[in-house]
Amino acid sequence: MKSTTGTETERLPHYPTFKSKRKALLPMAESSRSSQTAATSSPSVSSFSSSRDSSMTQMNDDQIFSILQLLPVESVLSFCMTCRKFRSLASSDPLWEAICRREWGEGPVDSLLASLSPERRGVSWKRLYQQVVQLNSLSCRTLSSKDGIFPKPRASHTLNFVSDCLVLYGGGCDGAI
Predict the structure, then answer these.
(1) pLDDT tens digits, residue range 51-79?
(2) How far apart are CA 175 and CA 154, in angstroms?
(3) How far apart, in whole angstroms, are the C-alpha atoms of residue 86 and residue 89?
(4) How many CB atoms lie within 10 A of CB 28?
(5) How far apart are CA 95 and CA 128, in angstroms?
(6) Spatial CB neighbours of 160, under 8 Å, sequence gap ≥ 6
(7) Is the overall model pTM greater than 0.90, yes or no?
(8) Domains of the chain listed by start with CATH number
């Protein structure tokens, strides 16, 4: 390497600049695809590597739904942002009900359904999941008291909808409401 003085600058190799990373990657992808096709002698393998029919958009909705049920919630939300078809699949109520059952268990979901009034049963499972996540992100603090008197622990906590919000409240002391 040359040492630089005040007026000299070190020369770097020239790399082409691309406006889009996708355009920059396309020539490499095409050349690797053509070399893979040339290297394989089986027509089924070569047609598979160059075919657009292997795209996930060509999969059956039931197959995609089954895959989405197994993914973490963050991945489902990311998948939802890729295209309109995937948004529709990833926002469906049956998927979010399955996610709620997976995350919370069958018992709590069945109890929640039993406690809902008929007009509340139409609530979106995705919205319900968001509300529960928001409630879980709330912080709890220990109460301090100057005179040393603290409230007794509560039992019989209840989870209900109030004005389209999911509210968790506790019962009275010793399990009384």
Answers:
(1) 555 588 888 999 999 999 999 999 999 99
(2) 7
(3) 5
(4) 9
(5) 13
(6) 115, 166, 167, 169
(7) no
(8) 56-138 (1.20.1280)
